Amino acid sequence: MRADDRAPGCVLVLPCYNEEAVLPATLSAIDGLLQDMIRQGLVSPGSFALYVDDGSTDATWSLIAAARAEAGPRLRGIRLAGNAGHQNALLAGMAAAEAADCVVTIDADLQDDIGVIPEMIRRFQAGSHVVYGVRAERKTDSWFKRTTASLFYSLMRFLGAPIIPGHADFRLVSRFALNALEEYPERDLFLRSAFPAMHLRSSCVSYARKPRQAGETKYTLRKMLSFALLGIALYTSAPLRLAGCLGLLSFFLAVLLTGTTLFSWSTGSVVSGWTSLSLIILYLGAVQLFCLAVIGEYVAKIFTEVKRRPRYRVEETLR
Fold first, then answer.
1. I want to staple 93 with a disulfide (CB 3.0 to 4.6 A). Which of 52, 73, 98, 200 is the partner?
2. Are 248 and 289 members of one domain?
């Protein structure tokens, strides 16, 4: 238990983007969980759920406002001006948690099991600053999503980026960890690697991922690829080294080919070889374009950072 041995103030942060189909069930389940934890003395009576509307175009905000009238202080809401993105919605919610002892972030579709949140609170009370929710299995996901997720985590670890396999954005974060996060001034943040990179005392709780109850996933293939590139570009420079290695390999191949060509010329063996020449040109062109794409990705991140634009803008709040 913590030194003062009191129930911690906890804020449940749920980013929402066009979740009107699943939100009624989510609002009921989260409020029920919150009341149970307050009744058991696991969290303080001042704890609440904070819904962050990330620029939804459906009735998401109206549902949050209506639920606020019933739940009272146990529910609060933030409406962002436009779609700022999932990571920025999480940051907005954590920033609005104010003086809470800990924050739990979870997606509004509740595919992550809210039943393990009490265990997360206990781990926090036992001294963990970050408690990661780790998916023990992904049977409810399609084969394509399971495969790409596995490849993503494997690639991130291979490149040296700090990441917890099977962990998305379902986690508990202490006030100490939140204060540490404020020391990261960059505009783009990849939270799945940001917290592991802090090397704070942490633990994991595993759970089985549930099927989506209603609505559709907001992570299209394009968004998943963009998200993966963000994590790689922000937390590892290995692709830049790879580009350098490819350039060095191309140089040695060119030297080898030059030696072979000169030897053939000196022995009087004239080889027409337009096919091999075409392949060499295509190979070198592909390497050059790949290296330029890698460098361009990092330059784009620098361009975003130097502009120092705000990550999000809060349009309306329910407090």
1. 52
2. yes
